Amino acid sequence: MVYVFAVIADDMESYYGLKEGGGTELFDMLNFGACALSFVPGLLYDYYGATVAMSIGTIIGVLPILGQLDWSSIFPSLDTLTGLKLSYAIFGMAEAFFSTIATFAPLEAFPVQYVGAVSAVVQVSTSLGASIQSEVYVLMKANFKNFVQAYYTYMLVCTVACGGLMVLAFWENSQLLHRSKTNLPDDLEQCSLKSALLSKNFAYMCLLFFIGVGFVFSYLDAAGEINAAAGLPASRATITFGIYGAVARVLANCALDYTRGNRNGGPMTYIALSLLSLAAGLAAAGIPSDPNAMSVHVMNLFCSLGAGGLLGVSPPALRLLFGSGSLGMIYGLLYLLTAFGIPTWGLLLPLQGCASGCFRAYCCAGAVLFPALALGALLLGRGDVPAQDG
Predict the structure, then answer these.
(1) Dihedral of CA 224/228/230/233: which sign?
(2) Membrane-crossing residues (predicted)?
């Protein structure tokens, strides 16, 4: 549902009668909550476990949706935009509970030799969810007169149902979760949070999440406008992002299980391949002065594959590089950098309503930066064979 807000931000702007750019401000606040505040669920997850953290996250997710359904009666003194921005930021933080805990709890519950396959199952759901939720919103908009209120109600039901099921699943399997914190090999067991934060692996991951993951979160908003400027439906970006991204997540994660014992088969190799795919897609749309529909189709394909691969292989990469002792906190700190990366990429985007060629600076910047990041991943991961759990 969070991914879908990149597509529906303009509808929120017109529905509430906000000032021009108000929808973008709401989307930015949503991303701020999901990224800059993601250390909160990470900290709770590390210290109190998945069941307690997910219970808190579900409650936090419900409150802002109730506020969106009837905000004025709860805080009548706040203007509409301020109230919505606060609500979206809180919901974004709640989304961080869902994404962080749903990502890492399975990685801890299963033995590390299956980390790729387990991550693939979780990640493909996330990717396909972007396409499914986009279509749900389109159907609601077409069939409900007050479609925004209908969609908020749908969000409320989904949040309660998904959060409740996750709490039950984590409670039922509580003996499996966090077992790896006391069953790690010596080299990972002694890797404290401080030593992890001072390592070269963490330094590279900081760059990756600021530049690479920050770009991915900004991409759907930009890609919708690029598609529209080239004469394609703006929703095409979300649909291809979900479908091709799911394919990339499955391929990268499943291959990781079979290759990571080899010299060049670790997670850094798949991160590098994902970054090169992003660069290829952006080059197709950025090099021509006025990209046509075909070049934008190429961008949709390669950027979706690259984004899916990058988001999909990053969690198991963190699990393999840093163990699981402080995994939630490390993940949250990295997404804090993503929160700064998103608006940084946004500075390269033009004002709304321009031709497709106006996105050249945005595309060319990625086409140049991502190969450099890919080279860094290959150099860092060369010969690095991750340790096995005992």
Answers:
(1) positive
(2) 47-66, 86-107, 152-171, 202-219, 239-256, 268-287, 293-313, 320-347, 359-380
